[in-house]
Every structure is written in C-alpha cells, then in structure tokens.
Amino acid sequence: MDSLTGINQIITQIKSTSEQAAGSPPTQPATMAPAHADFGQLLKSAVDQVNSVQQTAGQMSESFVQGKPDIELHEVMISLQKANISFQSMIQVRNRLVTAYQEIMNMQV
User: Fold this and answer.
1) So what's the pLDDT on residue 25?
2) Which NCBIfam families match (predicted)?
3) Residue ranges of domains in the chain
4) Are 12 and 27 in contact (CB under 8 A)?
5) Is the N end or the C end of the chain the one with fewer CB atoms within 10 Å?
6) Regarding predicted confidence, which is higher, 63 or 20?
7) How far apart are CA 21 and CA 15, in angstroms?
8) Percentages helix, strand, coil for the chain, rounded to the nearest 5?
9) What is the pLDDT of residues 6-56, one digit of tens each?
10) Residue 23 · residue 7 · CB < 8 Å
11) DSSP secondary structure, 29-47, as one string
12) Nearest alpha-carbon partner for 11 in 103, 100, 106
C-alpha cells in the first residue's frame, strides 16, 4: 500500500488545486503532502514505487518458475496482483493529469 500513498497525495493535490480554481476554499485532509514538496518529485517517487513493485513481482515469478523452494504460488500471485493494481492506479492518475492539463489549456485567460 506504500506505492498508493504517493498517488493518493497527488490526487489530493489535484483536487485541492481544482477547488482553488473554482473559488471554493481548499480542504486540508490529514494525508496532504507538505507544502514544500515538489509535484514532479512526488510523481517520480510514485512511478519509482510502482516500478519497484513490478520488479519484485517479476523476480518472484522468475524464482517460482526456476523452482526455488522458498517461493509459494500464492505469494507470487499476490505480488503479481499488487503490481497490476499499482500499475492500473498509476494509469488512472496519468489519465487524470492529462485531463487536468487539457482543461487548463482550454481555459480562457
């Protein structure tokens, strides 16, 4: 779930920014990232975490195929599902970022 923390922080920042743009006061949830956090750094961190989860799942899968006795099938399946869920979440964040970018570009100044 650690990889989803960064993604949730990014989504929270996007919601806060959209509320400010709409003129409503921003909400301050408990999971809000510190104000000094760089958006690009948060995004890179989230991508790195997704990559790490996928690499771990790939290594576990390779170990299972090689017949290593300390790797169980259910552990491999769980790690593969975690990798899939984190990747799908990252795709959703990307889609939301693209949509937000398009909306900003269509705003009249």
Assistant:
1) 54
2) fliE
3) 2-23+38-105
4) no
5) C
6) 63
7) 10
8) 75, 0, 25
9) 667 777 777 676 666 666 554 555 555 555 568 888 888 889 999 999 999
10) no
11) -TTPPPTT--HHHHHHHHH
12) 100
